[in-house]
Amino acid sequence: MSLRRPRVPFGMWLPIAVLAMHFFLYSAARLALYVVQSDSFTGLDFGQVLWAFIYGLRFDASMIFLIMGLPLLLTFLPLPIFRSQTWRGLVLALAGISLVLHGFLFFADTVYFSYVNRHIGMEFVAVFSDTKLFTAMMRDDYAFHLSLFFLTAAVFGWLYYRLIFRWVHGAGGNGGGWLKALCFLILAVVTVRGGVTNRKSVNIVHAFDSSARTAGYLTLNAPFSVYHTVRSSSPVKTNFLPKKKAIQIVRNDLALADSPPQLLEFPLYRTADPLTSFHQRSRSSASQNRTPPNVVIIMLESWDAWFVDAWRQAKGMPTLGLTPEFDQLASEGRLYTDFYATGQRSVHGVAAILASMPTLPGMPYIGTGGMEQNQLSFVSTAAKEQGYATFFIRSAGRESYRLDRVAQVGSFDLYQGSEDILQMHPQALTHKFGVWDDLMFSVSVDHMQSLEKPYFGFLFPSSTHHPFAVPDPVWQRSPDADRISRFKDSLHFSDHTVGEFFRQMRKDPRYDNTLFVITADHVSGVRSGDIPILQRFLLPCLLIGPGIQSGVDDRTSSQLDIAPTIIDFCGWPIGHASLGNSLLAQPGANGSPIQGMAIMATEQEVLRKQGSQWVLHNLHKRLDATSDGNVNGAQLDEVEKKLLAMVQAVHKLLGANKIMPASD
């Protein structure tokens, strides 16, 4: 069988044919996913499905041009080697191989989707880190599927050679040229990035633009999901204990004694009991019907506890005079002096605070690597479900760290960055990353005062970000221009903006019914020398709100505890999943203090602290541990076991998308 050869130059037909075949395959795979996994998309109406198919072309094009863009670009170059039939044959052969490999990935993704209700991501990495297990699973569980695929691939290969390869390969003519090559290059770059107006290239989180979360899964495609997840992750060892034992250790560690029906599938899921909540304990029966409390989280940029006098005084250290406003606030609220960041980047703090999820070695980042594909327990989503107005306001650019998309996944009604604030205040001063924090706080106060219902807000200032600038020389306390001096100046200015924010908030009659959580994303990193490992994560954390007893609390805690604390404080009768516990939990039955725990991570290491005991591990061996003579080896072994159990449980549950049940 043969087809009539085209009469136009191969320089046009070859790219058109290759791109058309790939776009057809991607669209067919999306349709197959929609049909085969129809139960996952029953909540979408026709318009949402249609938009998912149309919007999905943006993600399809990004991957297609990323994979085939370079070989197709070369066909346009007016050079003899790229005009030859040999080169055309190579490009067509590469396209055929690409289609088969894509087909296999789509096939596997469609089957796998029924198990995890999302696209393949880090599982692709796991294939290469445990090939024996993967091979055995393919042989034992998917022999029929593989046979069907290889039969289909063989038929496709024969048809591809007969109908496409011979047809396009035999086309003659000269369709190349430097101008056409330049135009194609520009098209490819724009397409891979996903547009011309966005400063950040398109990523997984951009698929969830729709209010219907499941539409994002239909919009995405498997190759895009794998590429963007793997490029921000790396394979690590995660099998340390029998699966059930690891899960049980984590549940016991979190004191999850209840057993809701969801427990079998979602081991971290817990149901909040409003009758035992802080909300119930701290309010008299006469005040039970008062307006639900507002919640404001302030995640300060690069504040570490070492430079905060309230923390230093609690530790018996000399003061520095950099944070008088925070220190005054600390006297009014509850200061946690053994509180830790889960990671060393802002996105780690966002995931930990809003979703109570750490970013462990080998895990994708939220917003940039695909963590948001999973059903996470966002405290902001819980607030919205309780009838709260939700907002996320930051002083840096909207798209930085792709937090605009994270805010959307987290169900925030309003998200504003420096661009939005400058539209309201076009004459405002700016710094390298956006507007100054005092303006951001002022805009936030105005927004809160305009709301008529309870609100949940997340504020993220940025003035203390490197290079640690200040808006006016009046804040330059030191004549030195070294890094630590600049940080101290910026910290002093940031402290002033926090104090001014609270002075404005106190004018609002709802101030006394508002919970304020003040902490940071990570430490500044400006201290030199051999900094103890724990101090590389040590943050200030302050709670101010009705019913919260002022004072110092030295229980070990972390950003993972903030979401369950808010749920406890507000008394929301909801189910949620988190890797922390409420900071307002009461002591044990015998009055014993709560020890607490914290999980911290770098790109290659994990650290667990509970009370005075801690263990640092690289997932292959213990690197360091408490050297206190009062701690014996058996105690450290137990800390290490709990650490590895949590790493294993989090990886496995995220891999199976079993953190949180999907909302109705």
Search tags:
664 residues; 22 helices; four-stranded antiparallel beta sheet; 15 strands; alpha/beta
What is the quaternary state of this protein? single chain
Overall helicity? 40-55%
Show unreliable segments.
Answer: 5-11
| Number of separate helices | 22
Describe the protein in words:
There is one protein chain. The protein is of the alpha/beta class and 664 residues long. It is built from 22 helices and 15 strands. Helix 1 packs parallel to helix 4, helix 2 packs antiparallel against helix 4 and helix 2 packs parallel to helix 9. It is globular.
Question: Quick recap of the structure?
Answer:
By secondary structure, the chain is of the alpha/beta class. It contains 22 helices and 15 strands. It has a domain at 10-230.
SSE map:
Blueprint lengths: L9 H27 L9 H31 L3 H4 L1 H32 L6 H7 L1 H11 L1 H27 L8 H16 L19 H7 L2 H9 L12 H11 L15 E3 L6 H5 L11 E7 L8 H6 L9 H7 L3 E7 L5 H10 L23 H7 L3 E6 L8 H7 L4 E3 L1 H7 L12 H14 L4 E6 L22 H23 L8 E7 L17 E7 L6 E3 L3 E2 L3 H9 L4 E3 L20 E4 L4 E5 L2 E5 L4 E4 L7 H23 L9
Parallel strand pairs: 2-6, 2-7, 3-9, 3-10, 4-5, 4-6
Antiparallel strand pairs: 1-11, 3-8, 7-8, 12-13, 13-14, 14-15
